[in-house]
Amino acid sequence: MRHLTYVAVLAGCLIGALWLEPFLKVGVLRRWRRLLLTLVPVLVIFVLWDLAAIAAGHWTFDPAQTTGIVFPGGLPLDEVLFFLVVPICAVLGFEAVRKVLKK
User: Is 76 exposed, middle or buried (0-12, 13-18, 19+ CB in 10 A)?
Assistant: First the structure.
């Protein structure tokens, strides 16, 4: 089960943030095109950055704590999911704060 550690942490982040969508009605997931425009640049920049760091030998991933699904260049699926999950959680949190402060 240790190989699911990274994915479990990401799931915890999502669980901690996704409730904001229905509870506060922040509308982040409903405006999926806007969210996609936010996620794509983040994903592209950080995937390229990670690939460069892996190629230079500056960055590695513990295979015992990742799913074992690895893209060419040595980037695990878990890391790509990180670049999607964390920004989604951040946007949900940001929009929730904006919504609460407007009241």
Answer: buried
